[in-house]
Amino acid sequence: RSLTIVMFILLLLVTAKAMGSELSDIVSQLKRHSAPTAVPANELAPVLVSVAHFYRVPATRLAALVLQESGGRAQAINNVTHDYGLGQINHRTATQYGINKTCLMEWRCNIVVTAKLLALTNGETCRYNVGQYRIITGRWVQRCADYESKLRNNG
Predict the structure, then answer these.
(1) What is the reported pLDDT for 148?
(2) Residue 120 pLDDT more than 70?
(3) What whole-number distance in Å separates Cα of residue 18 and Cα of residue 23?
(4) Angle formed by the axes of helices 59-70 and 20-33, nearest 10°
């Protein structure tokens, strides 16, 4: 399973080389907003752009989500909510899709899962953040608006 993911990523990296200006924009975005201990922008950007194209989600949106969730830090862990890695993927969500903690803590694998989950929510970052099945009413409406605002600031 891990070998399949690595081969998938290598294929995507070759594709990313053809995405010149978009790639340059994502590198700039990551450099502007990443935490000091983040995955280097020049390493993260080609994978992020390729995976975004594969799952048909906007690369700038995926980058903003990663920056908001983890600051681009591959080893980010929220011990309260049990969220892991670049996309701060919740352990229950990972279990639901058969994804183990090793994948969540490996940044290349995590970015693939993050893009897939974003695609499953039709690019709705609020759904990504609060969960696919939560009814968004009351305080959740404001929470979603606040999250969207934070993503725009990371764009």
Answers:
(1) 78
(2) yes
(3) 9
(4) 20
pLDDT at 69 exceeding the cut of 90? yes
pLDDT digits (tens, 9 = 90+) for 50-62: 999 999 999 999 9
Q: Which residue has the higher pLDDT, 54 or 11?
A: 54
| C-alpha–C-alpha distance, residues 43 and 133, integer Å | 34
Run of H or E including 124? none
Q: What share of the chain is helix, strand, coil (3-state, %, to 5)?
A: 65, 5, 30
Strands ordered across the beta sheet of 89-90:
77-78, 83-84, 89-90
Compute the distance between CA of residue 17 and CA of residue 127 in angstroms, rounded to an integer.
Answer: 31
Q: Compute how many other C-beta atoms are within 10 angstroms of the C-beta atom of residue 90.
A: 17
Is-contact 74 110, C-beta < 8 A?
yes
What dihedral angle (degrees, nearest 10) is formed by the CA atoms of 140, 150, 126, 52? -170
> Which neighbouring-strand residues pair with 77?
84
Strand ranges (E), the chain: 77-78, 83-84, 89-90
Question: What single letter denotes the amino acid at residue 57?
Answer: V
Assigned token pair, 13: 């990296």
Tokens representing 39 are 């995955």
Verdict on whether the full-model pTM lies above 0.70: yes
